């Protein structure tokens, strides 16, 4: 049980949404402190005390270990912390199952997030057209979605037949597949999983957390917004 709300330092990025989705799934009370990265609010001294790496998300749990507050930064670490604390979506007593979840969570943290972020940037946001970077990260994006598609051919969810923090982490990045110039129809098992996860009521609520008045849209270089790319067709 959680008596006091967990404070989430948040912006509506894929990494930020991992935390709101997880907390909605847990039905744990939480409050949101918006950290507007467009206004560089992540660089304030106050936020640095919570997140030394100046990145969202971060949390402060007022009911941490021993009943004392604890700050946690990095989205993967937050998912692991919450999974351990509340004993859900993260295997507690089965080392084989736990290792599978951790492996796919680390895959997301090390590959499915960083490389897709680069694909998004060079596809839509870079100040200049860099064909080499567009094709390089487009090829990596296709490979990563293919890896996920193959894994989902083995069971209903990413790490097992059960929904876990690995699914939360990966779903929040796959939700931006259009920005990666990926057609989910090319990866039918990913498309099926994505539809199933996206219908979970808690996922819908967690994905919908956004600062009032803010439009969650890609920063687009107008000259390349609709440019053709083999990343979308190969």
Write down the CATH class of the largest domain: Mainly Alpha
Order of strands across the main sheet? 2-1-3-4
Structural class: alpha+beta
Poorly predicted tracts of residues? 225-234
Could you tell me the CATH topology label of the largest domain: Glutathione S-transferase Yfyf (Class Pi), Chain A, domain 2
Give the N-terminus to C-terminus distance in angstroms: 49 Å
Please tell me the total number of domains.
2
Major β-sheet profile: 4 strands, mixed
- Tertiary shape: globular
The tally of beta strands, per DSSP, is 4
Strand fraction equals 5-15%
Mean pLDDT: 93
Helix content: 40-55%
- From the alpha-carbon coordinates, what is the Rg to the nearest angstrom? 18 Å
**CATH architectural category of the largest domain:** Up-down Bundle
Can you give a write-up of this model?
- By secondary structure, this protein is α+β, with helices and mostly antiparallel strands.
- The chain folds into 2 domains: 6-86, Glutaredoxin; 95-200 and 218-232, Glutathione S-transferase Yfyf (Class Pi), Chain A, domain 2, CATH 1.20.1050.10.
- Helices cover 47% and strands 8% of the residues.
- It has helices spanning 14-26, 45-50, 75-86, 95-112, 114-125, 131-151, 165-174, 188-198, 201-207, and strands at residues 6-10, 30-34, 58-61, 70-73.
- A 4-stranded mixed beta sheet has the order 2-1-3-4, with helices on one face.
- The longest helix has 21 residues, at 131-151.
- The radius of gyration is 18 Å and the shape is globular.
- The termini are far apart.
- The model is unreliable at 225-234 (pLDDT under 50).
């Amino acid at each position: 049980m959680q008596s006091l709300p967990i404070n989430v330092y948040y912006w509506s990025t894929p990494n930020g949404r991992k935390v709101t989705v997880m907390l909605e799934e847990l039905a744990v009370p939480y409050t949101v402190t918006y950290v507007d990265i467009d206004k560089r609010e992540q660089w304030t001294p106050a936020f640095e005390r919570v997140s030394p790496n100046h990145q969202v998300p971060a949390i402060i749990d007022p009911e941490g270990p021993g009943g004392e507050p604890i700050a946690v930064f990095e989205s993967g670490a937050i998912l692991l912390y919450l999974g351990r604390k509340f004993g859900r979506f993260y295997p507690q007593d089965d080392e084989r199952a736990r290792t599978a979840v951790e492996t796919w969570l680390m895959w997301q943290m090390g590959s499915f997030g960083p490389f897709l972020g680069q694909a998004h940037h060079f596809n839509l946001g870079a100040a200049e057209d860099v064909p080499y970077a567009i094709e390089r990260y487009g090829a990596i994006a296709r490979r990563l979605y293919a890896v996920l598609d193959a894994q989902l051919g083995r069971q209903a969810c990413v790490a097992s037949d059960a929904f876990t923090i690995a699914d939360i982490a990966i779903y929040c990045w796959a939700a931006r597949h259009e920005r990666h110039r990926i057609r989910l129809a090319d990866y039918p098992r990913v498309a099926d999983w994505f539809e199933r996860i996206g219908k979970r009521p808690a996922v819908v609520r967690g994905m919908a957390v956004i600062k009032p008045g803010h439009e969650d849209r890609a920063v687009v270089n107008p000259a390349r917004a609709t440019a053709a790319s083999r990343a979308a067709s190969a």
